[in-house]
Amino acid sequence: MADQSPLDAYSQVVAGVAAHLTGKVASLRVPQSRSGGPGPRRGGESLGSAVVFTSDGFLLTHAHVVGSAQSGTASFADGTSVPFTVVGADPLSDLAVLRTAGPTPPPAELGEADQLVVGQLVVAVGNPLGLAGSVTAGVVSALGRSLPTPGGRLVEDVIQTDAALNPGNSGGALADSQAQVVGINTAVAGVGLGMAVPVNATTRRIISTLMRDGRVRRAYLGLVSMPGPLPAPLQERFGRKTGLRVSQVVPGSPADRAGLRAGDLLVTAAGQPVEKAQDLQRLMFAEAIGKPFAITVMRNGALVDVIAQPSELVAA
Asked: Is residue 281 classed exposed, middle or buried when 0-12, 13-18 and 19+ CB atoms within 10 A define those classes?
């Protein structure tokens, strides 16, 4: 038999991931009490997807998929449907945890998005436009993107992929070639790309807190940032090449009141080095709310120290 072509090998990987994950991704029907809810609508329902991630019926999806609803129905590829309740949602990460009232398929394995590289193969599994068990594949197009949520906030450190996503995919799995879930998909309709909230140490903390407490108390600074190169002298001084470039400061936010500006290059926050959005996000939990929060930035060629006081993030 002739050697397999690269296309055959690619197809085998995608088919293997699809076979492993399709049954573990639910199609959600979420009743909506108001117009304008996310996703395609049928008779007052919002449609989306969710990933089984524990053996006792916990599902992971997006906060914008469930909206203000407290319950709904999850359907699986084997034809079973079970009711679920919303355990909790976190608007800043756009993640939500659900709990089913009946049996679910075995859980998917959560991976580590921080190990992804641009160009890596990824497979998206979800229920676009209500079409259950749909699979698309592509590559990681970029890392560290920012994504606006329906509530007007920005989710940072997002994965960009060219795997085709459509309304209804939101809440589904983005998996690597080992069928590990590295992201939770969200559809960006009409622009030829998709985004996914990464699964990493920060989101694992959010998920476990939602499971335990039903909500996450989050600190809020009010800035949007992206990695930016440190000047050569600072690279040598701090032993790293990048900081976080502030691209936007929300008017009236704690960052604005502290005097942070667009163009500032964050070097440290709370005494910790910051190189990517996740470095700042992992500091934005309950213990930072209302406390002095020291930030060092590079501004006009000089290091400047500012003290912010993060507020508590509240629902939009």
From this structure: buried
The owner of tokens 């964050």 is 266
| φ, ψ (nearest 5 deg) of residue 261 | -130, 155
Q: Which positions ≥6 away from 36 have C-beta within 8 Å?
A: none
Q: Residue type at 24? A: K
The list of the chain residues with pLDDT below 50 reads 1, 35-39, 41-42, 189-190
- The residues annotated with a catalytic role in the active site are 64, 94, 170
**SS3 label, residue 154:** strand
Look up residue 239 and give its two tokens: 């032993």
What pLDDT sits at residue 196?
92
Instruction: Tell me what pLDDT residue 191 has.
Output: 57
Nearest CA among 304, 156, 292 for reference residue 224? 156
Q: CA torsion sign, 122 to 98 to 131 to 155? A: negative
Q: Are 167 and 185 in contact (CB under 8 A)?
A: no
Contact 46, 98 (CB under 8 A): no
* Predicted local distance difference test score (pLDDT) of residue 153: 62
